[in-house]
Amino acid sequence: MIRRNKTKEIRIGNRVIGGTNPILVQSMTNTYTGNIGKTMRQIRKLIRADCEIVRVAVPDIESCKAIALFKKKVHIPIIADIHFDYRLAVRAIEEGADKIRINPGNIGKKANIKKIVVKAKNAGIPLRIGVNAGSLEKELCRKYGGPVPDALVESTLRNVEIVESFGFHDIVISIKSSSVLDTIDATIKVARVMDYPIHLGITESGPIASGTIKSAAGISVLLHRGIGDTIRVSLTGDPVSEVVVGYGILQSLNLRVHGPDIISCPTCGRMEVDIAPIVKKVEQRTSNLCENIKIAIMGCIVNGPGEARIADIGIACGKGAAILFKKGKIVKKVSEKEMLKTFLDEIDTLVEKSPRKQRKDNKKSRK
After folding, report:
1. What is the CA 345 to chain-centroid distance, rounded?
2. How far apart, in whole angstroms, are the C-alpha atoms of residue 155 and residue 158?
3. pLDDT tier at 275 (50, 70, 90 boundaries)?
4. Phi and psi of 11, rounded to 5°?
5. What span, in angstroms and rounded, lies between the C-alpha atoms of 228 and 246?
6. pLDDT of 74
7. What CATH architecture is 10-252?
8. What is the rounded CA–CA span in Å between residue 87 and residue 61?
9. What gap in Å lies between CA 244 and CA 272, rounded to an integer?
């Protein structure tokens, strides 16, 4: 079991992070925020995918104004992402943002940071100090020869100290680089000396395939060390993919439950049944379940019976037939022609009997 670092609890809208609260999955819209209709549609798509916090870019006043409209129509916290102009942060707070993310590398003078802090304190909302290798303070890049981990750490500590100097402590921190190893190194160093909640992610990780790999590698290492209170998987493309991958990372480490865990063999020359279509159908049938059940779909006699036996429900396929297991016991032998329908029916029966039965399309909350 992973022992999480004990961090300070911080409220973001109607959610609380830090402490023993669940690690939340967030994403960011990739539309122009001032386009209210387009951005609202994307936020709703993210909500349907179970995104728990959404961040929007705020490059201008029109984007600030949009926040107030989003707040009237959605129930999840809205974070305003601010760069360069402190006045946009102030206006976003006035429009109802639940949290402000500032980038200390480009927000400007200390006096500007103070104006944001004072406004956030009066509004009772937190700030995220988001240090990013791509926009690190120039003097730190010169000092360290580039955005290396120690430079990221110094930037984080320095800017937290600035915010704290104004009597403000509702702080979330993030230290991100496109380098997995640099992100891990810097985040571990910061986590050793601070108890503020940490938002995890690998910035600019890339398209879905390579970005998923990099994000899973970096985020999982930190989560396994007990570090992290929210995560975002930064991928090029539809942000809904970020949410799907984020939950997958958390579930693989037993940190969150987000539907069935499907175990299926990678297939080899010993297979006598094509299990790929079966796996696809099972995945489709169970995609809207919140149920924490392990489903095994195995294609040969080497690991098939063993994996199927230790799953909540499993099927071990052989030549022209399959053995169906449920809770470690053999239930029946079925023909290849009947196996898919029988297996899907048995999954439905197992879920229907569960006291925790719940579907994603009608849930209101989840642990």
Report:
1. 32
2. 5
3. confident
4. -90, 130
5. 13
6. 95
7. Alpha-Beta Barrel (3.20)
8. 9
9. 32
The band of 362, judged by pLDDT with boundaries at 50, 70 and 90, is very low
Average pLDDT over residues 92-117: 91
CA–CA gap between residue 284 and residue 252 (Å, rounded):
19
- Going by pLDDT thresholds of 50, 70 and 90, the confidence category of residue 359 is low
pLDDT at 252: 93
Q: Match 């930064």 to its residue by tokens.
A: 234
pLDDT by residue (tens digit) across 161-207? 999 999 999 999 999 999 999 999 999 999 999 999 999 999 888 89
One-character DSSP codes across 176-204: E-SSHHHHHHHHHHHHHH--S-BEE--TT
Quick one: DSSP state of residue 359? B
More confident: 93 or 264:
93
Fold entry, domain 261-352: Sulfite Reductase Hemoprotein; domain 1 (3.30.413)
Q: Is the model's pLDDT at 364 over the cut of 80?
A: no
The distance from CA 295 to its chain's CA centroid, rounded to whole angstroms, is: 23
Q: Which two tokens stand for residue 202?
A: 């690998």
The two beta strands, 294-298 and 24-28, are: unpaired
Asked if 224 and 200 touch (Cβ cutoff 8 Å), the reply is no
Instruction: Find the helix or strand (DSSP H, E) in which 317 lies.
Output: strand 313-318
Q: Report the pLDDT value the prediction gives residue 80, as an integer from 0 to 100.
A: 98
Tell me the sheet residues that pair with 125. none
Domain boundaries, the chain: 10-252, 261-352
Helix axes 240-252, 36-48, angle to 10 degrees: 20
- The answer to whether 230 touches 246, Cβ cutoff 8 Å, is no
> Span 82-91, mean pLDDT?
95
Helix, strand or coil, per DSSP, at residue 11: strand
CA gap 126, 140 in Å, rounded? 26
Q: Which residues fall within 8 angstroms of residue 282, CB to CB, at 6 or more apart? A: 262, 295, 297, 343, 344, 347
Q: In what order do the strands lie in the sheet with 294-298?
A: 261-264, 294-298, 313-318, 321-326, 329-335
Transcribe 123-135 into DSSP letters.
HT--EEEEEEGGG
- The reply to whether the predicted model has a pTM over 0.70 is yes
Paired tokens of 123 = 């509004």
Tokens representing 234 are: 């930064």
